[in-house]
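Aim 2 progress update. The chain analyzed this quarter is reproduced below.
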Amino acid sequence: MNKSYTIHSFRKCKPVVISAIFIIALISSLYAESIQCVWSGIDKIVAVGDIHGDYENFVTILKSTGLIDEKLHWTGGKTHLVQTGDIMDRGPDAKKVYDLIRKLEKEAAAAGGKVHMLIGNHEELNITGIAFDYVGYVTVEQFISFLPANYRDKKEKDFRKKIEKNLPQGTNSVANLNGLIRYYWQEIIKTSKGARTRYTDNYYEKYGKWILTHNAVIKINDIVFVHGGISEKYSTKILSTINNDLRNELKDLYRKQKFSDPITYPPKIVYDQMGPLWYRELATNNGENMEEEVDKILQNLDAKYMVMGHTVLTGPAFSPEAMSRYDGKIWIIDTGISKAYGGSLSALIIENGNFSVWGLKYEK
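Predicted structure tokens:
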């Protein structure tokens, strides 16, 4: 049902080395700060919550809200699309979602619009290599899709030879072969540190570096968009500082697990349950005894509204009343879009300051 609603010789040259290091650090800092995170004067925004590997449902939302056509090209004009993070895990097709977003970023920019893909906690878990610590997060399909092609193909070939050699005659060979190959991949995900390392390295090189050119929190007009939420602790910080610090921490943690490099940015945001990728209280409190805190948070942010994903809404969620808290100041847009969560498709549409919701229940 449709409803409208990023030594000696050394001593002699030491000052030069120090100067060079300083210049490199300065350039890096300036580059980081050049990633814009605040926009104003935007007439229309479409915000979409956690995708969790569900490419098909994501495409349906984009088509239904007029942002792409049947050939998956941008038709949203000057609209700003905000996807609030957690494209990874639970579902099979995160890579396809990333590839589509990369394409749409260019097409939207050419049309005067913008695609904002925020960093979610599941992007964090995969960049830092710890997504495997959580059972069920990394699906077989996702794991295979982010492996280096030569490694993946060799493994598949080895599996097939091993299986075909031992497969009893007279059995359904295609079904058994595919099922056994999937079983082997599941075992590799659980037991092979080397395979996990290849996955993480390839994910970081091909997608993680690009992801880290994005933000964790942005502000468009008078609306803050974030994956988890902004607690009072973070509401007094400059948004660009939050984004730069988070990016630096994630880069550091990746280098630590890959090269055993020492930490230069002790993680303060990445694993903080009060941080922008993990904070839930604004979504779970249901408006009880936090009105003054919400007002203070928004005042500190110089904003009127906050839109977040991360926390899945339960029950009917296709109305402004169901998706908003605190007199419409807080909006929760994770309705379980991925079929892994039930497949309740939705988008928050903000046009000329007016909020409405588009929703569609996925039917098997």
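Residues 1-14, 16-32 have pLDDT under 50 and may be disordered. The CA atoms of residues 48 and 128 lie 25 Å apart. These observations will guide the mutagenesis experiments scheduled for the next reporting period.
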